Amino acid sequence: MEVVRLARETDFDGWRQAARALRNRRVPPESALWTVDGQASLFGGRSPSEIAAEPADASEATGGRFTAPKAFVDVATKVVLHRSDERFALLYRVLWRLQDQPSLMHIASDPDVAQLRGFAGEVSRAAHKMKAFVRFREITDEDGEAYVAWFEPAHRVAEATAPFFVRRFANMRFSILTPDVCVHWDLAALAFTPGADPADAPAGDALEDYWRTYYASIFNPARLKVDAMQKEMPKRYWRNLPEAALIPELIAQAQGRTDTMVRQAPSEPSRRVVKAAVRNSRDAPWEGQATTTLDEVAAGVDHCRRCDLWRDATQGVAGEGPGQAKLLFVGEQPGDQEDLAGKPFVGPAGQMFDRALAEAGVPRAETYVTNAVKHFKHELRGKRRIHQTPNAGEVTACRWWLDAERRIIRPRVVVALGATAGLAVLGKPTPIGKVRGQAMPLSGQAQAVVTYHPAYLLRVPDAAAKAEAYARFVEDLRLAWRLAA
Amino acid sequence: MATLTLKRKLAILSDAAKYDASCASSGSSKRDSMGGKGMGSTDGGMGICHAYAPDGRCISLLKILLTNFCVYDCAYCVNRVSSNTPRARFSVEEVVDLTLGFYRRNYIEGLFLSSGIIRSADYTMESMVRVARTLRETHDFRGYIHLKVIPEASPTLVEQAGLYADRVSINIELPKDDSLAALAPEKDATGIKKAMGAVRVSEEASKEKGRKARPPKFAPAGQSTQMIVGADDATDGAILKRSEGLYGAYRLRRVYYSAFSPIPDSTARLPLARPPLIREHRLYQADWLMRFYGFDRAEIIGETEDLDLTVDPKMAWALRNRGEFPMDVNVADRERLLRVPGRGVRAVDRILDVRRFKRLELADVKRLSRGIEKLKPFLVCADWSPGALTDSAGLPERVRPKQLELF
Fold first, then answer.
1. For residues A455-465, average pLDDT
2. A134: contact with B, CB 8 A cutoff
3. How many domains are there within chain A?
4. What is the tens place of the pLDDT at every residue in A50-108?
């Protein structure tokens, strides 16, 4: 039995020197025992240089030279950093087998090669995690500010990973203290000192509180995946990560926070925001351009975002009729049918309107028919969309379009059908009962007539009252037609 | 209004940023701080995740908004103008100081800066560019910077963003243009696509060969985008079709899928439910198949279909195309081996390497793969043939996970 006593846990050069000598002397893997100085003095053993000094077996002499594939050397430099006590023996075994099987390193499915690659992978991962999980703390010494970290790597990667930190922080003095070795950068050269103790590192850093704030805030409690986190940030690293102290609490609260978000009724926007939005949309010109044709109005209405009603509507419904009409009818808003058809007054109220027009002797085709509000305002009840009266803000927002239609058509008479239309045409709330049946002056030598909305006529419950309202409605239509003639 | 402390601002503006899935710091050019005045390095390949939150997501960058004040009213967004979420705004210096302070302590790889739209798209974009410029020029910061691009911003500002940033991104937000119009009234799908196109043009111009004065590098880590899954009624097929189109048209590095997550102070117009995380996971798997495994979108899923949530899309393809199997691991070419379920690109490459020296047996394949049981019906090795197993009626049951992964 040959016992090799290596100088350090990561003594790759010593291992290579001894392994080369042992292989030259044809010492089989099972007859070599690999120890590290100080660890196994009871075995005695010899240092690599002592082993190398002994001449090789003359009959098997190869001149002390043989080659190993680069793939093996690359893997071996990593594997010596592994914490497994098996590593040196495993490396020697593979080196031994390479004599007869030069392609061995390519056979990733071989158990020895698989283990070797497994070790190398774990070492690479430990180095990667060191790059990720070292946390520096600021200190001030006689030379000014410097940064110190305490870190416990999974394998002995501190020395090999130090150049990464130098490249990253070339202009910053830092030390990384680990139980195995300590790394120091003084802006000029790297230095290594023996392993240290957590007490040698600073206890905290003012910015850690900010980092913890960030960590807690960037976490989305609705997506809790503790296993995924722990796979990439194993618990063994937690004690040196300032943010990890928050993890149990964040996990514990996640379910409750999510439930609250899911359960919480959607909130209404603050009144300040709503008012500002209404003001902005009402005051904003539509793409800065006043419309000059009815086609432009129709296109504009369809894309209008001056109030929120477009969201739930199928489309914006502009008016319909000849561009030179003398009579302009203004209704309230499109209904369910109008919203689908894209034309005004085609539903039940439209039919009532057509009947009354015919009775009053007014040809609809010679008039222009539109609405005060161009999108259908409604609420859903079951599967039905139920009409809702537009509010003053929506009427005001949509006046932009009504004004454009009036400006382009220049009608002599504008008939407001119902209270909403009255508000839009006259600019103020108007009691229909009081002002109906009379001509009222409008700007630009036009006149206004205010009357019932045809839908109102459908809703009057009492048959006699209904007939009477209908008669007045027809009378008002006649008046308007006469005024327009 | 009371002045907010920096810590409070950080809490508000990182909370507001967490719905953006991307935190990658990969794929940029290789550089370090040697010979400079400042700090920072990127190794060109994969990035580094400095921490993981309990949601399993990587924390690589300081991902924050410059401000969460916003004049837009995107229904899915916690920062929409009509939301009652607390508001804050960083100064340029505050973002720069936080980035450098965090970087120096090795908490992060760099900065991912986004912003709500204040005043105008140009005003906002200009402030974001100023942060990046200050980091790069004043502090010689050589770490990673990802800037969100506001599609409505002027081309000059987008160009500048690309000069300072490693990666730029413009979110497509939703799989369908009409859902975008419906949920994000101020956003314009055409405008977003135009902006992505402009980034591609700048990116390619900076890489043009044979020019004497080569223009400076433009976003060396390319551009990415994000699509919200589950906020509208788009099928998985429609989502992947859109990704396919985006990858093709704008050469995106990544499309991120973000399961729509309930947000505090949400609107009634969106589903208030737990995010569809398994669906998101399956979309990523399908996306991977399109990018690295040589699958066409149409092979994975039809436009009107949804992915099978119970089994991964590669397995689903294998079950539908059993005529392709079993495959002989000792004979089949790389392209076909990549189609065997349960095996990654690396395992396939290892098999090809080993194959040059010995015939693989089942035990060899087992050592090169994560699990062998689900693979067995699809493989032929030196000492194994599945016989009738490949075509057996019970196969789907056999390979289906006993229980869905708990998310």
1. 90
2. yes
3. 3
4. 888 877 665 455 555 678 899 999 999 999 999 999 999 999 999 999 988 999 999 98
Parts of chain B with a pLDDT under 70: 1-2, 190, 209-216, 402-407
Residue B10 CA neighbour count, 13 Å, CB half: 21
Residues of A in contact with B104 (CB under 8 A): 136, 138, 147, 169, 172
Identify whether residues A314 and A394 lie together within a single domain.
Answer: yes
Q: Select from A170, A200, A230 the last residue of a domain.
A: A200
CA distance B322 to B325: 5
Whether residue A139 lies within 8 A of chain B, CB to CB, comes out as: no
- Among A114-128, A135-149, B270-284, the range scoring the smallest mean pLDDT is B270-284
Q: How far is CA B327 from its chain centroid?
A: 32
Tell me which range, A165-174, A330-339, B231-240, is most confidently predicted by mean pLDDT: A165-174
Whether residues A347 and A297 share a domain: the answer is yes
Residues A480 and A400 in one domain: yes
Same domain assignment for residues A119 and A149: no
Q: Which of B7, B14, B354 has the CB atom closest to A107's CB atom?
A: B354
Task: Using an 8 Å CB-CB cutoff, list chain B residues near A169.
Answer: 33, 39, 104
Mark whether A441 and A392 lie in a shared domain: yes
Residues A165, A117 within the same domain: no
CA A464/CA A452 separation, integer angstroms: 16
pLDDT bracket for residue A481 (50, 70, 90): very high
- Alpha-carbon gap: B222 to the closest alpha carbon of chain A (Å): 22
- Over 60: is that where the pLDDT of A286 sits? no
User: What pLDDT shows up at residue B190?
Assistant: 67
Class of domain B6-221: alpha beta
Task: Inform me whether the C-beta atom of residue A209 falls under 8 Å from chain B C-beta atoms.
Answer: yes
Residues sharing a CB contact under 8 Å with residue A5, sequence separation 6 or more, in sequence order? A35, A36, A37, A40, A43, A44, A45, A46, A47
A114 inside 8 A of chain B by CB: yes
Q: What residue type is assigned to position B162 of the chain?
A: G
- Determine which of A220, A230, A261, A271 to mutate to test the interface with B (most B C-beta atoms within 10 Å): A220
Among A100, A128, A156, where does a domain finish? A128
From B301's Cα to the closest Cα of chain A, the distance in A is 26
- Which of A100, A147, A161, A167 to probe the B interface (max B CBs under 10 A)? A167
Residue A243 sits at the chain B interface (C-beta within 8 Å): yes
Q: Would you call A170 and B36 a contact, using CB atoms and an 8 Å cutoff?
A: yes
- pLDDT score of A285: 47
User: What pLDDT was estimated at residue A347?
Assistant: 86
Please give, one letter per residue, the 3-state secondary structure of A127-190: HHHHHHHCCCEEEEECCEEEEEEECCCCCCCHHHHHHHHHHHCCCCCEEEECCCEEEEECCCCE
Q: Among partner residues A168, A216, A247, which is closest to B40 by beta-carbon distance? A: A168
Find the closest chain B residue to A310 by CA distance: B182
Task: Give the type of residue at B225.
Answer: T
Interval A391-400: pLDDT, tens: 989 999 999 8
Are residues A470 and A333 part of one domain? Answer: yes
Task: List chain A residues with CB under 8 Å of B15.
Answer: 217-218
Q: Is the pLDDT reported for residue A244 higher than 60?
A: yes
Residue type for position B249: A
pLDDT digits (tens, 9 = 90+) for A175-231: 999 999 999 999 999 999 999 999 999 999 999 999 999 999 999 998 899 999 999
Strand order in the sheet with B61-65: B61-65, B110-114, B144-148, B167-169, B223-229, B254-259
What are the tens digits of pLDDT across the range A381-426? 644 668 899 998 999 999 989 999 999 999 999 999 999 999 999 9
Residue B90's identity, in one-letter code, is: F
Cα distance between residue B178 and residue B2, in whole Å = 41
Write out residues 62-101 of B within 8 Å (CB-CB) of A.
62-64, 73, 81-84, 98, 101
Report domain extents, chain B: 6-221, 315-406
> How close does chain A come to B394, measured CA to CA in Å?
31
